[in-house]
Predict the 3D structure of the following.
Amino acid sequence: MFKVDPSRIDLAREFRAKPFGRHSDELQRILNFFRSDPVAHNFCVVCTKPHQEWALARFRATSREPVDLLGPVYGSLEDAEWDIFKLRWRRHTGQALEID
Amino acid sequence: MIEILGYTDRLAVRPGETIEFKVSRETGDGFYRADIVRLRCGDDRPDGPGFQEELVVDAVVNGDYQGRKQEIDCGSYVSIPPAAAFNALAGFELSCLIWPTLPGVGEQTVMGRWSGDSETGMGYALTINSDGKPCLRLGADGKVWRLAFPTPVTARRWYRVTARVESKTSEARLLCVPLEERWGDRPAVACDATAPFVAVTEDTPFTIAAHVVRDARRGWRGAGHFNGKIEAPELRDDEGRVVARWDFAQDISGIAIRDTGPHRLDGVCINLPTRAMTGHNWTAEVMNWRQRPQEYAAIHFHEDDLYDCAWDTDFTWTIPQTLKSGIYAARLRAGAGEDYVPFFVLPPKGVARAPVAFLASSATYLAYANSHDHYEDPVAERCHGLAVLSPADLFLMQRRDFGLSTYDHHRDGSGSCWSSRLRPILNIRPKRALWSLNADLHITDWLEAIGQAYDVIDDETLHKEGLALLENYSCVITGTHPEYFSTAMLKGVASYLDAGGRLMYLGGNGFYWRVAFHEELPGAMEMRRGEAGTRMWTSEPGETGLATTGEPSGMWRHSGYAPQRLVGVGFISEGFDSGSFYRRLPASHDPRAQFIFAGVAEEIVGDFGVFGGAAALELDIVNPKVGTPAHALRLASSEGHSNVYVVAQGEVGANHPGMDGIESPLVRADMVFFETLNGGAVFSTGSIGWAGSLAHDGYDNNISRITRNVLERFIAPAPFAMP
């Protein structure tokens, strides 16, 4: 079973610098792992202003139900990706990422 | 919140023909504004070419309308009209074979004659109750009585279920027996009781896979839908005489249901249940219903099947003779709500008003219609990044009555084989994700930008008219993702090329899946995913044959017509995180390709665009083994794709390491040119993302230049010579 090494802050920094596109193999493994959660209770974002604003949300038990807005709002999808990356990092490593 | 939405009775319309617009104001009664607009570009991102529409100021239908919410009757079933033979029954015996797929999720009516709510209605019905147990339900005078079998059924297993009421003794009997014994089964023992009454109802249809409730506008609508397969439903009187015996193996390609009993109580399928399904006796000796229809005597019903919303028409418009061909929409506005209901205005039949036609991929639009795949399927976040939900997504997540795409699973987990255009389709819209119609509007935007006159034609019309639709054009341009083709469509394009036509395939993953249109139900398209190809569900064993035609569905490649045979390239990989560029190959300097690269000095092209590069989203490559012509010039190939791109499952026999965009040389888009018969030619880009680069830098860039070079030469009358 794959586990995220919490000491590899360099990989988190790599993602922060470039959330979309070609990544190192080690970062890609983390992304594959993070992005394999089932739909139930998984994170998503709701577009609240077209091309301007996205709100952090979470699916309920199924995708046939409304999603719950969790509060944070982002001005770019890159920022949303990064915030959820940090949430998942904390969930899977037990440690917070202390970088912006 | 979606406030207003609508659809039309057709997607393609010609001058002189009349199109109907059907609108629902979801937030209740109130006026809305409707205006006809011609769409040029749907990309409203601040860093894109910008949303561009042109108001058709003299459209007589522009105006204010009183709106109201319109309802949808979704869920498939069979309805048999009321008949004297039904009314004559004092007692009865209902029996059939069932293969339930969602037992225990609400009470589901298998068959019977029942009207009204399941707790207050009247009649008789065989059901699977909310505990998943077979049940006989009787209702009269507001009272409902049930006799439930003691053990629940198991999903995806065949049972014979029988329910009987004896009129003279009021004895009721219910029996459910699995057709194949399994370990752990206990002997099935009939369940007996005394029925307190025998219900009679005279104007109610006999139904299979649902019951009906009264509907002020439609007369009846379905309720209590059964999910799963039903086979060989039969109705007898209480002396054992057959009243009706419906044979689902007859007329499989149509909507009629045939009764082989003495009264010929034929019925009709409502809302496109899936026919040609393997029955209890399927032997696996044949894989297609045409060979042994008697082994395909089952129909799979779903509570979320939908053919036609059947809304009332709000307004109609007869297309003026002088109206320019193009992609149009009724722009609907109510309060803060807005919807665009698109349609294609074709030129008059047999007439070309421009040398070039844009072929709108309406079959592919249908395949993706109202899809939930971008947050439900395994590819979703892994390939796209975070699930981004638009207001339309949030609406459709809870409104499954708007019908599914062919990418979706039904609520019971089975794959969706049907899609229909007779409903609002919220992802065939401008100002939405750059996919499907909205991505294709990048092409019309570019044609407008360079001042090129063009007609718009579409897949469904190509299916009906074939070569005749294309033959008057010097050049036909595809959309960005012409993925779904019927046999007639494919033959039409191939015949066009044989006759000297010129085709610009400005997309990726085209000509991939084999589909069919329903002969009796306009706008209904069928597909089966088969057992290979990049797909979100897999056909059940033996169920790859289309009910409409009997043809094998699945990939065209497996029907002996790989995309490479038609356009030189075929699908190889997809990834939705970023795009990349093409690098020219020596063939781009071949004299035969000189016209393509005239004025293009760069060796790297397409390193820009809304997707980060012209090679993006889904990619195609050459493969001589499956049909790329030997004389095809591979002009350029993309490189540098991310590790989200992996080699498509359908292209390899076995998965292995080294299949991603960094390691595998197969992950690329090939740009190809070749000559066809009688002076024709093909130019293929092998990338969905190509059109996303056309508008870059004020439409002055090497992708735009290459595309324009090809278009101008393809329009020119001088024939291409075969090398």
About this structure: The first helix of chain B runs from residue 84 to 87. Chain B touches chain A at residues 44-46, 372, 375-376, 381-382, 385-391, 394, 397-398, 400, 411, 431, 577-578, 612, 640-644, 661-662 (CB under 8 Å). Residues 4-41+48-72+316-343 of chain B form a domain with the Immunoglobulin-like fold (CATH 2.60.40). Chain B has a mean pLDDT of 96.
